[in-house]
Amino acid sequence: MAADLSQIVKAYDVRGVVPDQWDESLAELFGAAFVRMTGASAIVTGHDMRPSSPGLSRAFARGAAAQGADVTEIGLCSTDQLYYASGALNLPGAMFTASHNPARYNGIKMCRMGAAPVGQDSGLAEIRELVERWSESGAPDPAARPGTVGARDTLADYAAHLRSLVDLTAIRPLKVVVDAGNGMGGHTVPSVLAGLPVDLVPMYFELDGTFPNHEANPLDPANLVDLQKRVREEGADLGLAFDGDADRCFVVDEQGDPVSPSAITALVAARELARHGGKGTVIHNLITSWTVPEVVAENGGTAMRTRVGHSFIKAEMARTGAIFGGEHSAHYYFRDFWNADTGMLAALHVLAALGGQGTPLSALVDQYDRYSGSGEINSTVADQADRLAAIRAAYQGRDDVTLDELDGLTVTAADWWFNVRPSNTEPLLRLNAEARDQATMAKVRDEALAIIRG
């Protein structure tokens, strides 16, 4: 009987519970299918610190080699380190991680050569079809010449490449607390920050895919509490928190207060525009702050609004030649990093900006945090389409607002906006609201929630 992959093949990756939903035998078929889909004669693989990751990654390599591809295994790495290897070696790549999901999960993030994304519309549906067919009828015929499997260490080259993209030569000494959440930041941060005038205070750097201290998901405020406390205790200049595969980075200031990813997007956008002579396109998703397009325009750039999700951001960056892109979820994309996302490079920009002047981080980011935002508020609903229609009906026809449906429904007025988007995987509606002041934001947020929650 063919394996049912409907629960584990998502829009942009493979993800599920091991061994309940997938295992090494399926990983081997995914390796074979990846080579068939890409037509590659060589690929690169890497994996995170989860207990199941080495076995799954090795099984994938076996399947790929059986189809004739030479496999370079870079071993333990962050997701952006795998993207680096894919870009620098110009090879398709596969990263074994379930990012911030609990320990029993694992997954595969795949890319074509040059770190170009693989999603449902760019090869993932084809891979799923092959794996389902082979799981029913037996493994595919091997290639006439099997490929080889070899190892390569890319950590030092990855770290050097990131440091080459940010001028850190003149920064003042900084005390930085980093919470790696027992994830891959514990592997990459020491190498990337080596040689810089940084007093590094490590938290949970031990690689442990069972996440004994807290979930490696900094988007949840509960997982920032330890970092915030330590920053205040240490009198540090800032704190950084990475998710499990260390491709996202969250920042807290010297008071332990979280810095909005929109503010980080605006700060990095200004710096990247300066690097590129005050010209360039910056991509931002439609629920980042109004601050982002304002700062981009003030610094000579062109802002482009897109849907939420890395596949849309990366596609627009490739299409427009954009120099940078940012999302509210703390994913940051750079043209000089093959349009891929790297939280570590964003963190280096923050260190360079802070270390290049004398004010504390809270004062520095004030200029990039101009409005009051609600953050993302999830509501469980019985019928997503019905609730979206109710919101549309409530605001349609009003002279003081405009409506657009680029991604869910966005309602915009002179002093505020809100967006409501359905989740693709859960019966949820996600609300984000922003206004020029806190009182207006609270009023707009509560009015929208009242309709959403019926």
Mean pLDDT: 96
Radius of gyration: 22 Å
CATH topology of the largest domain: Alpha-D-Glucose-1,6-Bisphosphate, Chain A, domain 3
Secondary structural class: alpha/beta
Name given to the CATH homologous superfamily of the largest domain: Alpha-D-Glucose-1,6-Bisphosphate, subunit A, domain 3
Shape type: globular
User: What percentage of amino acids are in beta strands?
Assistant: 15-25%
Assigned CATH architecture of the largest domain: 3-Layer(aba) Sandwich
Structure description:
This protein is of the alpha/beta class and 454 residues long. The chain has 14 helices and 22 strands. It folds into four domains: 14-153, Alpha-D-Glucose-1,6-Bisphosphate, subunit A, domain 3 (Alpha-D-Glucose-1,6-Bisphosphate, Chain A, domain 3), CATH 3.40.120; 157-257, Alpha-D-Glucose-1,6-Bisphosphate, subunit A, domain 3 (Alpha-D-Glucose-1,6-Bisphosphate, Chain A, domain 3), CATH 3.40.120.10; 261-342, 3-Layer(aba) Sandwich (Alpha-D-Glucose-1,6-Bisphosphate, Chain A, domain 3); 372-452, TATA-Binding Protein, CATH 3.30.310.50. 36% of the residues lie in helices and 22% in strands. A hairpin with a 4-residue loop joins strand 19 and strand 20. Strands 1, 2, 3, 4, 5, 6 and 7 form a seven-stranded mixed beta sheet that branches. Strands 17, 18, 19, 20, 21 and 22 form a six-stranded antiparallel beta sheet that branches. A five-stranded mixed beta sheet has the order 9-8-10-11-12, sandwiched between helices. The radius of gyration is 22 Å and the shape is globular. The model has no long low-confidence stretch (mean pLDDT 96). Helix 1 (24-38) crosses helix 2.
